[in-house]
What does this fold into?
Amino acid sequence: MAAVMLMVKVIFVVTVIFRFLVRFSISKCKRVCAHCKYIFAGRTCSKGCCWRLLMIKKYRKKPVVIEAMHFKSFCIYQSILDWMHWHGCMSLINGNQQIIIPTLEGNHIASVGDYIIKGIAGEFYPCKPDIFEKSYDEIEYEI
It folds into this structure.
């Protein structure tokens, strides 16, 4: 029992010392990342990249123009399928009034009310109306 208590105390002391050393090294030690040559106070990942490369960053969607069709009702499904087949996408209709769209991630299902988007690489995918309306604005064609 005494040996276990001694071992717990030793582990506690080692943990406290390790935490102190880590804090001290982060605040006092300046190192240069071998990958990007950035001078920083902190740790590097296993590839040598500085910790700043591993942080969550914010990104803004690039302003690209996409084509989309609103799957408003099931009666226009043939127009949507013709549009998708014209661009090489072999989509199908299932028995639940849904369009099955093959993508690289597997089959996606577009229900009535969804938007079908043709992306910048020519790929098709469905998008729920609330997300579509937050992400895209309709533009007028210039003739």
